[in-house]
Structures are given as C-alpha cells and as structure tokens.
Amino acid sequence: MTAIILAAGVGKRLLAASGGRPKCLVEIGGKSLLVRLIDNLGEAGVRDAVVVTGFGADAVQSAVGTAVGGVRVRCIVNPR
User: Is 64 within 8 Å of 75 (Cβ atoms)?
Assistant: First the structure.
C-alpha cells in the first residue's frame, strides 16, 4: 500500500515555534511529526510513502531521505 502525505504548507501559525522550518519537521520528543507519521504508517503495513512538499522542500527531503523505518519515501515538490 502507498500513502500520500501532504506536507507542502508553510504552517504560519507554528512559525514562531518551528523556527521557520516546515511544520512537519517540528519535533516532539526528539522526532519530527513527519517521521512519527511515517513510522506509524509502517506499523500499519504501508510500505511506500509519497510526501508532497512545497515550503522547505529541501529540508523535508533531507529529514526523511529515501526510507524511514522500512517505508520507502519519495518526495514530490508542489511549486505553488
């Protein structure tokens, strides 16, 4: 199964807490929200994830690489 994760937004309401990073990279307990989500998807049987990025696309790609916890990850940039 493949999951699609929409992570292209700026997260204006969290900018002060995020230090200007994308909201999906905000860390709770030493793990970003995005990595936590992908870990949970893997536990549910998902083997592939497509992350749609926009704001901070390079940072998101760097944070997840090509795999997280056994889930293959591919990032696609939404330019708008």
Answer: yes
Six token digits for residue 66: 């090509």
3-state SS class at 5: strand
Q: 69-78, pLDDT tens digit by residue?
A: 999 999 999 9
Sequence ranges of the domains in the chain: 2-77
pLDDT per residue as tens digits for the range 4-26: 999 998 888 888 878 888 999 99
Q: Which CATH superfamily groups domain 2-77?
A: Spore Coat Polysaccharide Biosynthesis Protein SpsA; Chain A (3.90.550.10)
Question: How many C-beta neighbours within 10 Å does residue 37 have?
Answer: 19
Closest Cα to residue 49, out of 31, 37, 63, 32? 37
